[in-house]
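Sequence of Laccase 9 (Lentinula edodes).
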Amino acid sequence: MKLLASTVLAALLALPAFSDTIPITLDIVNADGAPDGFSRSMVTANGTYPGPLITASKGDTLVVTVNNLLDDPTMRLSTSLDFDGILVDTGNSFDEGSSFVTTCPITPNASYTYVVPLVNNQTGTFWYHSQLSVQYVDGLRGALIVYDPDDPLKDLYDVDDENTIWQVGDWWHNSTLPMLAGYVATGIVPVSDSGTFNGVGRFNGGPEVPFFVVDVVQGTRYRFRIINTSARNVFTMSVDSHNMTIIETDGMPTSPMAVNSLDLLAGQRYSVVVEANQPVANYWINAPYVGGSPARNLNQNATLSRAILRYQGAPEEDPTSPMSLGPADEELNALVEANLRPLVASPAPEADINITLSLDVTAGKAQWNVNNVSYLAPEVPTLVKILDGANSTDDFNVTENTFILPANKIVQVIFPPSEDDEEHPFHLHGNNFWLIKSNSSDEINTDNPIKRDVAGVGSTGTIIRFSTANPGPWFFHCHIFWHLQAGLATVMASGLNETRAEVHPTQAWTELCPSYDALSPDLQ
Ligand SMILES: *[C@@H]1O[C@H](CO)[C@@H](O)[C@H](O)[C@H]1NC(C)=O
Ligand SMILES: *[C@@H]1O[C@H](CO)[C@@H](O)[C@H](O)[C@H]1NC(C)=O
Ligand SMILES: *[C@@H]1O[C@H](CO)[C@@H](O)[C@H](O)[C@H]1NC(C)=O
Ligand SMILES: *[C@@H]1O[C@H](CO)[C@@H](O)[C@H](O)[C@H]1NC(C)=O
Ligand SMILES: *[C@@H]1O[C@H](CO)[C@@H](O)[C@H](O)[C@H]1NC(C)=O
Ligand SMILES: *[C@@H]1O[C@H](CO)[C@@H](O)[C@H](O)[C@H]1NC(C)=O
Ligand SMILES: *[C@@H]1O[C@H](CO)[C@@H](O)[C@H](O)[C@H]1NC(C)=O
Ligand SMILES: *[C@@H]1O[C@H](CO)[C@@H](O)[C@H](O)[C@H]1NC(C)=O
Ligand SMILES: *[C@@H]1O[C@H](CO)[C@@H](O)[C@H](O)[C@H]1NC(C)=O
Ligand SMILES: *[C@@H]1O[C@H](CO)[C@@H](O)[C@H](O)[C@H]1NC(C)=O
Ligand SMILES: *[C@@H]1O[C@H](CO)[C@@H](O)[C@H](O)[C@H]1NC(C)=O
Ligand SMILES: *[C@@H]1O[C@H](CO)[C@@H](O)[C@H](O)[C@H]1NC(C)=O
Ligand SMILES: [Cu+2]
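Predicted 3D structure, token representation.
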């Protein structure tokens, strides 16, 4: 404990003087809960689903102490936290939380402190979740907001606070261990029981859990920050009788664009401005989802995935209008991802290196492949191997699907059109990318593409470019965690020498792997 405190202090002293340190403690505990009315044991941060909100400001440093108090053997007992979408400097890549890529998991009864300086003036809507196997499906997910005191779009809204965050996620009645075993045995991805909006939802035949209520005052403009914390489902958001003006895409300030329906893949985030400009009443916020055949889980009813937008002065009751799946009373004006533009144009530089990634599934098995390789997490994390001197593809097992790239280059990743009809939300850790060809369009846009960190890969093909100016072993994977667990992942390892030069991990980090490896599998 003394050792841990002194290494954290040393890390803090190394920070620039202007940055505020945000100390956060998260107790990772098993807790009973019934988000959709079905009671179960969950893996949580501080006993709640979603976990407590974390907030910071531009340039702050997150100092997140995780106390692993898990004790329910029906779920994984170790844990690890990823701060999804946060740009992480090479020097802090060891605190980025990806199990077996940049770290080993935190063992039960142990504590670990992640130190993550917020770099590049990054602001926006992010989230944290377990990045150990599919553990976040058991509940360990929460919002992480980085506010911008100088937001260039602040004139567009009046309210942006802890009450304007919408977390939509799929929910499951079973724990992940039997579900994963079922997936491995059959090749059929588990189908969620319900969808939750800020931690509450309903399933067919279940109790009438009160829908989440979003309170608004007529004449006020709200910045709602929508986060898709799904492990599988795609949600389509709309608010009856109201438009949504998108102003942020995965942390990127976005040229304002009005829509009335918005699809989010797992891991994606948007901020939208909604003006409470309608008569005082209750309105449905529709959040239907798709994720596997509902016939495989009769609990599932996407119509029940919704919340209420309640104007001050309206009666405390459900809206009187029907529960629709989309905007009920307006012509559909759905988001087309390819039409998103960054607020400040950022042309995609010419690519120095091309990589083609072809995705396919092995029929009838829980096995996804990228270029014919199914990712298998190594015992020794990628970063540990690099620090120990790994310097070529031969230093990694084929199943680590690790691409070695030079520093300070532009890499283009081409995903050819896939035959599979499901869209795979590919997520790059530690960095964001220029989305020069969205799956939503046939056009290639290198002039002013949106930059984001999760983009769908599907039937029309997707092309992204990213810079390796921030070297490190960055996980690049499908955010449908069932697919990730079945191998749909790669590691983009850039600048191995630069990584060795810049990464100076703490003693506490160095001890994570020996502690984890010493555990019997049932405690891991
Ligand atoms: C989580 O719970 C711990 C222990 O009660 C508390 O100290 C901490 O502030 C809580 N964290 C957050 C983010 O609310
Ligand atoms: C964690 O601590 C509790 C209480 O001391 C103990 O019962 C449990 O066995 C410990 N778990 C592990 C994995 O050591
Ligand atoms: C962050 O913003 C400050 C003030 O606007 C600017 O001076 C600095 O160059 C920015 N840093 C980066 C990395 O963009
Ligand atoms: C969880 O899955 C196991 C194995 O398929 C099954 O026996 C059990 O009934 C399931 N429990 C729930 C609550 O769905
Ligand atoms: C969240 O992502 C999942 C998986 O990609 C998707 O099925 C679901 O519709 C998304 N939710 C929203 C609100 O877009
Ligand atoms: C939504 O936007 C459309 C197109 O700009 C406009 O025609 C419509 O009146 C708007 N609806 C509301 C409720 O503001
Ligand atoms: C889903 O819920 C809606 C609203 O309660 C209901 O009308 C519909 O029949 C349900 N669907 C199924 C398949 O049960
Ligand atoms: C990458 O691929 C594109 C499209 O096939 C091609 O035009 C370009 O020249 C390639 N760039 C490099 C550096 O190989
Ligand atoms: C995958 O393997 C098949 C059969 O061996 C081969 O034809 C194909 O070219 C391989 N694809 C890739 C992307 O390596
Ligand atoms: C790194 O490369 C050098 C020269 O190519 C080689 O001699 C050495 O064995 C490599 N290191 C490892 C860990 O493989
Ligand atoms: C290395 O890869 C092979 C298949 O290429 C696999 O069978 C083996 O389990 C892997 N070993 C480790 C330690 O990951
Ligand atoms: C990395 O460093 C080693 C030893 O200093 C050197 O031999 C090698 O050329 C460097 N590799 C690159 C890609 O710069
Ligand atoms: Cu996928």
